[in-house]
UniProtKB/TrEMBL annotation:
It is found in: Cell membrane. The cytochrome bc1 complex is composed of a cytochrome b (QcrB), the Rieske iron-sulfur protein (QcrA) and a diheme cytochrome c (QcrC) subunit. This is Cytochrome bc1 complex Rieske iron-sulfur subunit. GO terms for cellular component: plasma membrane. The chain crosses the membrane at residues 55-76, 96-117, 161-181. It is a multi-pass membrane protein. Residues 269-333 form the Rieske domain. Iron-sulfur subunit of the cytochrome bc1 complex, an essential component of the respiratory electron transport chain required for ATP synthesis. The bc1 complex catalyzes the oxidation of menaquinol and the reduction of cytochrome c in the respiratory chain. The bc1 complex operates through a Q-cycle mechanism that couples electron transfer to generation of the proton gradient that drives ATP synthesis. Its main location: membrane. The keyword Ribonucleoprotein does not apply. The keyword Isomerase does not apply. One of its GO terms (molecular function) is monooxygenase activity.
Length: 350
């Protein structure tokens, strides 16, 4: 339908505008102006304002409670605990609780701020003309005055309940990030300083799973052993073997240069940690003529006839030696644990 066919009473009426401005009928982008301000119930009823204040404070308080629950989750739930939660199924209790509590902590801060802005802060719209970037002193003074007026209208100074609970929520939420640092790894404590070896622990052949006897080890051979009582199906088998793995070699006693090594050996049978002191790789290459062992990862080389000292490569210190002897049954046994931490150096080592 063309404009000629539209009834005249339905056509938009042109209105005169000041200063020669284009009428609304001719300019689709004309500024419609600001609508009349409608006061909210909180603006005219102090009891309603108080209710909104309590609601905002409740949300900030719930945020603080959620943050505390987030931190408590790290203590309450073990890493390997699995629970069934409908409709998610079987999930990690720790991950689920962390996600829910942190999400609620952030949500209640946002919801509280939005509710505060929509019900208690001033909602009067003001239009201002654009000004140059560098404001005049009068404008700066006006901005500061407007800021002060806005702060006064927001009730930030008067409504201490909202202010204090908001500060509490904002102060507690960053603690969640501090607690998350725990996921960088558990504190080593003294776990890296000791192994399963101890006085009386028999040396178990990792191939036959039988106790080792001196006659089982011939000169020039390399045998791997683990401590008695460690089972392959144990949940911490790999963790324990990462510290307790042992390599056994037999050297002619006259070829042993290190006095302590000779005293800690049994008839030339010496036991050293299998874990490289560079980055913890397992050592498995032995050269019987030179009594050198080579780490296949970065070629660190140790002399087993001289206290397993480093003769080549990036390793920083010798392989720890385990003092061994023979029990009443004729089996090789440990006479204690390693006297220094095994494997790669760590920041607490000293």
């Amino acid at each position: 339908m063309s404009s000629q066919e539209i009834p005249e009473e339905n056509l938009p009426v042109e209105q005169d505008t000041a200063h020669g401005a284009v009428s609304g009928a001719d300019d689709p982008f004309a500024d419609p102006g600001l609508p009349a301000h409608k006061p909210r119930i909180q603006d005219i009823d102090e009891r309603a304002a108080r209710r909104s204040e309590r609601a905002v404070a409740l949300m900030f308080t719930l945020s603080m409670v959620s943050t505390i629950a987030f931190i408590a989750s790290f203590v309450v739930f073990p890493v390997d605990k699995i629970v069934f939660i409908w409709p998610f199924g079987h999930v990690s209790a720790l991950n689920f609780s962390l996600g829910v509590t942190l999400g609620l902590a952030l949500f209640f801060i946002g919801a509280g701020a939005v509710h505060w802005a929509r019900t208690l802060m001033s909602d009067v719209e003001r239009a201002a003309e654009r000004h140059p970037i560098e404001a005049e002193p009068e404008v700066k003074a006006q901005v500061l005055a407007d800021f002060a007026a806005g702060a006064e209208e927001s009730g930030f100074g008067r409504r201490k309940l909202i202010r204090n609970t908001m500060f509490g929520a904002l102060a507690l939420v960053p603690l969640s990030g501090v607690v998350l640092l725990r996921d960088l790894g558990p504190m080593p404590e003294k776990k890296l300083r000791s192994t399963m070896w101890g006085k009386g622990k028999q040396l178990i052949n990792m191939n036959t799973m039988e106790p080792l006897r001196p006659e089982d080890i011939v000169v020039g051979s390399l045998t791997f052993a683990m401590p008695e009582g460690l089972e392959e199906d144990a949940h911490d088998f790999q963790t324990q073997m990462g510290k307790a793995a042992l390599m056994i070699v037999r050297i002619e006693p006259d070829d042993i240069k290190n006095k302590r090594e000779r005293e800690w050996a049994h008839e030339g049978i010496v036991a050293f940690s299998k874990i490289c002191t560079h980055v913890g790789c397992p050592i498995s290459l032995y050269e019987q003529q030179t009594h050198h062992v080579l780490c296949p990862c970065h070629q660190s080389t140790f002399d087993l006839s001289d206290g397993a000292r480093v003769i080549f490569g990036p390793a920083g210190h010798p392989l720890p030696q385990l003092r061994i002897g023979v029990n009443t049954e004729g089996n090789l046994e440990a006479l204690g644990d390693f006297e220094e931490p095994v494997g790669a150096a760590f920041w607490e080592r000293g």
